[in-house]
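Researcher: Structure prediction, please.
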Amino acid sequence: MKDVEVRPVEEGWLTKFVDNEGLQRQILSLYVVTTCGAYSLPEVLPFVSKDQMDRIASLHYAPVMEVAVGIRNDWGGDYRAFGGLVPTCEHKKVLGILYPSSCFKGRAPQGGVLFSFFMGGVKQPELLGLSDQEVETYVLKYFHEMLKFPSDVKPDLIRIFRHSRAIPQYEVTSGARFETVKSLQAQYPGLIICGNLRDGIGMAHRITQAFQIASEINQQ
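Model: Predicted structure follows.
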């Protein structure tokens, strides 16, 4: 789906978009719920005034790179944990290392382990500009130094995923954003602006938000 555009009409809301086959589609509905990033809203909601939209779309997203690192033999390491974050005072090129294979099934073969290295963020955004080889050099360094794998052992899998807009930063401008969202929803009944631009940034926040919105709509 692409070229999504939503506009208020007499019957409610008209959503136009181009589907995966390149065909123009449209949907008429009583409600519209947006969950996209704040930076996408100017194109999705073109009827909103620039002044109002600027207070929402100005939300800053930290760039983050995720590196999936897998190994078939855990070499006796105990990784039964969620993982850990690395404080700035450690002066490392990694934000944290999580252990998804310890939390979820089917992430690694029996006896193996999968790690998720995170790099970049607000304080080191330049790391996303590193070449794959440079990224792997840092990953291998911490693979041995922090995860304690033998120096002659290398991962069986390294996959790099760069996200230029990853984690929204709730800065001093957040109050104005929240108030603008509330004002727009009152101005345009049936419009619900949500996602990680309000009510928190985590998956648990999204689940809670979805239940709250569904409950509010059912009560109307």
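Model: Residues 38 and 98 are 27 Å apart (CA to CA).
Researcher: Thanks, that helps.
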